[in-house]
Amino acid sequence: MYNHFHQNSYLYLPLFFSEGELAIIEPILINFHEKWLKDYQDVYKSHLINSHSLTGSSSISTAERMQLFKFIASERLLAIVENLFPAKAKFLNTQLFFDPYNKEQKNYWHRDIQYTGLSIEEQQEKIKTENVIHFRIPLTEESGIELIPGSHHQWDLPIEEDTRLSQHGRQPSDALERGQIISLNRGDLLIFSANSIHRGLYGNNRFSLDIIYCDDIPAFKVFIDERNQPTDEELSQLNNNVF
User: Fold this and answer.
1) In Å, how far are 20, 131, 216 from 115, measured between CA atoms?
2) Per-domain residue ranges for the chain?
3) Which CATH number describes the domain made up of 2-242?
4) How many CA atoms are closer than 13 Å to the CA of 95, on its beta-carbon side?
5) How many CB atoms within 10 Å of residue 100?
């Protein structure tokens, strides 16, 4: 199972979560999202298709925050995390993904690392050794993710780089021949490398939680907001293997 991830950039586990497990987090996510929409209506209507930092938000209660931390560090998830990362992993952040306000807004191929300010040469080297992995948990049936298998450790073909970076007449929403679509249903778990070439597919009122883990190395400390991490008091009640 884990070899599939290492070779193909992703691991798809259908109906991984029970309704009981989803019932623990779903009300928290809905509550957060409703408040977020009110607070960020302008940028949502402009372009945004995700929010982040749920565990650091004042929009959720202390009890809700602890529920999320327990979910993030649950034994079922950590059993997978420990088999995917070469050494110790660390919780990085959470994101919620939803459809754009403008139904005509186009999706876009990307690697998460392209937004870090690193040069192309630095990105090419870092994807070989540094790992950031999304655990996507859809709360509704959705079109899912399209990605290029194996691209988490391999650089783009020329047409893929042109598409992703809007070069030579290509646009990030253009089709790519090597793209593979993974459709998702409520309760599924899709694990994919942030280093891979991928894009979200809009439609069907998607509503998905991403839990993001990374290598526990100094290079990622600049991206970790301590407000999203448990306090010492909270840690005493948690499995702290990823905190």
Assistant:
1) 36, 15, 20
2) 2-242
3) 2.60.120.620
4) 14
5) 18
- Adjacent-strand bridge partners of 215: 89
**Residue 46 region, left (φ>0) first, then alpha (ψ -120 to 50), else beta?**
alpha
What are 156-184's pLDDT values in tens digits?
A: 999 999 999 999 999 999 999 999 999 99
Q: CA 144, CA 147: separation in Å to the nearest integer?
A: 10
Query: For the chain, first and last CA: distance in Å?
Result: 25
Q: Which H/E stretch holds residue 46?
A: helix 41-46
pLDDT bin (cut points 50, 70, 90) of residue 195 is very high
Number of helical (H) and strand (E) elements in the chain, helices listed first: 8, 9
Place of tokens 């088999």: 83
For residues 196 and 155, is the Cβ–Cβ distance under 8 A? no
Question: Do residues 211 and 142 touch, judged by C-beta distance below 8 A?
Answer: no
For the stretch 32-41, pLDDT in tens is 999 999 999 9
Q: How many CB atoms lie within 10 A of CB 146?
A: 20
Q: What DSSP string runs through 187-241?
A: T-EEEEETTS-EEE---TT-EEEEEEEEE-SGGGGGG--GGGSPPHHHHTTS-GG
Beta bridge partners of 198: 110, 147
Helices (H), 108-164: 120-129, 158-164
**Residue 47: is it exposed, middle or buried by C-beta count within 10 angstroms (0-12/13-18/19+)?**
exposed
Who contacts 185 (Cβ-Cβ below 8 Å, separation ≥6)? Answer: 14, 15, 138, 141
